[in-house]
Amino acid sequence: MLLPFSERAKRWEPHALALRRRLQLTTDELLDPYKLAPLVGLLLMDAREVCRCLDQRISRHILLNGKDDWSGGVFAEALPDGRRICILNPTHHPRRKRMTLMEEITHVHLRHVPSRLIRQADGLRMRDYDKPQEEEAFGVGAASLIPWGSFFPAINRGMAIPDLAEKFEVSEDLIRYRIQITAASKLYRARQRASE
Fold this sequence. Notes:
The chain is mainly alpha-helical and 196 residues long. It contains ten helices and five strands. Helix 1 packs across helix 6, helix 5 (94-109) packs across helix 6 and helix 8 (161-168) crosses helix 9 (172-181). The protein starts with 6 loop residues before the first helix and ends with a helix. The mean pLDDT is 91.
């Protein structure tokens, strides 16, 4: 198995490959998280449908004023059949939604403990945040969409960030993240200089 250069990314890659195997994908095939979600027990719901059940002022805040404050989430409590409800922000770009969904799939796959609401001294509630858990979910999710076995050869051939983003159908920011987190920055820069 071809592994990234960084230790952290090396730990994440086998989890990403396990998720890809659930869809019987090679490293050169694109992963569709919408096909993978039901296999890990996620039921996708459209946020617009959910918002129809809410007060119009709250719905407007969720889908308009506050649309940049959330990407998606999974309800901590499972349904009677064991599935969990996952809601994605419908206002985000499809490529961002793919990564958001992949991150939520990874949380379930790795059996991460769902975040909780914590009551502050002033009575306000805030969601707790487990940084290592969130970093792992994002890292494994990114590796699932951009597997090292096809990412490394593409970088080594001199593909630029915009072309890599098109190849893997992800955002350029996610490509930059994957280059940085796998410790492939020097290789990327060297191949870009050589192709000029």
